[in-house]
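[Automated response] Your request has been received and processed.

Submitted sequence:
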Amino acid sequence: MCFWTILGIFLVGLAVGESLYLLDYKAENGIIQTSFADGRALTLAADAVGDEVDAEIRSQVTESDARPVIIERYLAKYKSPLLPYAKEIFELSEAYGFEYYWIVAIAQQESNLCKKIPENSHNCWGYGIHKNGTLKFDNYELALKSYAEYLKRVYFDKGLNTPELIMKKYCPSSNGSWAYGVQHFIDEMESGNF
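Generated structure:
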């Protein structure tokens, strides 16, 4: 009976946490709290009182755990064709050692998250698109892998790690609006306000 009570409490706490992770919700009794907008740790706690057992479950979920969910929710909010690749975007960011938001923020700036791209290109980043032709991929998976490697090699490995620094090479003719837009989309994802 004790095992089933604790398991039930855990599952309820997990369900509540999943439902409320982006909300800045504070219950009157302070049992469930989130602090997502400021990038701090998200704390979920559940108090339960059973007939036979008083139990408390507490767990800390760091902001890094929320990153794949942020990507997924952001892509869903804007109805992006990249939505099925949310997990892959996060995994590529991790594998190449750069922040989770770059691929998405640049895609938002360049193509409204892949809604305005050259036909049959799967190229959401304006990457390899110039007067001599357009870099095309057979699918988004190949495009994402190529783009992640490109970002790391051409920008991050050379210390170009802010929208302003990237802009100087990525689109040098921009009056600053490119960097401003990318930073705005990064801020949206980081704050959870989208």
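Summary generated for your ticket: The chain has two domains: 2-61, 64-191. The first strand starts at residue 42 and ends at 49.
If you did not submit this request, please reply to this message.
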